[in-house]
Amino acid sequence: MNDNFWGRVLDLLEKQDISRKEFAAQIGISYSSIHNGEALGSIPSADIALKIAEKLDTPLEYLVFGNNEYNSSIQTAKAQIKQEQFLYRKNKDIITAIEKLSPDVRTSLRDLIVKIGK
Asked: What is the pTM of this model?
């Protein structure tokens, strides 16, 4: 793990299997901007830093400050959302049918399912 902005960017590029040249082209900067930023340990302008964070799907705070805890909680939340989306797609027909029931029947059905699940 690198301890500066460009080091963290390069770590993420490696994890995502993206070359520096390819990434520079994707965000509209020159390859030398990445190379120079890395060599100098500098942080790019706010607009470029934001583009980088968005393209790497990571919080800007992580790139600037290296706050792993913040980045980890974001990744955990994203994984939870993906899991919930998967479960919804998998059970969409059941959910739709349950939503058509009266509130009393839904409550009874939920209670029954909870008891069966124990």
From this structure: 0.57
